[in-house]
Amino acid sequence: MRCRRHCFLLVLAVAGALLGARGEEAGVAGMALVPAGDYAPLLRGKDDPALVPVAAFWLDVRPVTNAEFLEFVRAQPRWRRSRVSPLFADEGYLADWAGDLELGPRAPADAPVVRVSWFAARAYAQASGKRLPTTAEWERAAAAGFAQADGASEAGFKATVLAWLVQPTPAPLPPAGSGRANYFGVRDLLSLVWEWVDDFNTAMVTGESRADSGLERTLFCGSGAAGVRDPSDYPAFMRTGFRSSLRANYAVPNLGFRCALSR
Fold first, then answer.
1. 28-262: CATH number
2. Contact 140, 39 (CB under 8 A)
3. Whether 141 contacts 59, CB under 8 Å
4. For the chain, N or C: smaller number of CB within 10 Å?
5. Residue 131 has what DSSP assignment?
């Protein structure tokens, strides 16, 4: 009897531990847990590591929508279209909306919000108790295929990503989260809009121009392709080039964002 009782208690203890662990991983509503791993930068200087460790983190399952951003500007009037400072958003900011607090036909409530600056996206994330993902985190999540963690080795995955890149942006945009979930449960990373990352301005170089003596010259033009991780990864080249062209106050027609949270 004593043995049976001890075994029963042991089973309960193990079950409780497992449930507790699952409870810790139950996570945040609307977010998916991206496990720890490595990010392999497409371009890197001679002294940069080939792999960047990425700690586990939470990432929004889908991009932030117009309806969600509308609630944000209702609560924080300084981010309304008519009030935002030009230092923090250019003239294209929320240009698809019908008004300060009116979405209109070009900005469906469930579609991803676009034409938002980095400043505005970052303010939204902070107001939500979150943050923007780093480049390493975003790329770590986006590297997953649909059926396995390594999309690069998944048949047809790269072709699917390329198919989105060659298509014009539809107007209006489809609902956020309508795309197929990847291996981590995240949707629309590579199939709906471009997305801000927190450190977008470190995409290629740290200087202001090619006359800067501190620049890493091997990251430019043809020489930049000589030492890349994967010369055939055209989507990664596109993302790197796009990020390096941005300024924090830009409001681009097909550029939105999603939020992250440290684990």
1. 3.90.1580
2. yes
3. yes
4. N
5. B
pLDDT tens per residue across span 103-153? 999 999 999 999 999 999 999 999 999 999 999 999 999 999 999 999 989
Residue type for position 77: P
Which two structure tokens, joined as six digits, stand for 126? 């902070």
Give the model confidence (pLDDT) of 62-110 as tens digits: 999 999 999 999 999 999 999 999 999 999 999 999 999 999 999 999 9
Instruction: Output the six-digit token pair for 256.
Output: 């939105």
Q: Where are the domains of the chain?
A: 28-262
- Residues 256, 247: Cα–Cα separation, whole Å: 14
H or E stretch at 33: strand 31-34
Tokens of 212: 């800067």
Q: Are 102 and 131 in contact (CB under 8 A)?
A: no
Reported as a single tens digit per residue, the pLDDT across 181-215 is: 999 999 999 999 999 999 998 865 444 434 444 44
- Tokens 């792999």 — which residue? 51
Q: Is the dihedral of CA 83, 86, 92, 94 positive or negative?
A: negative
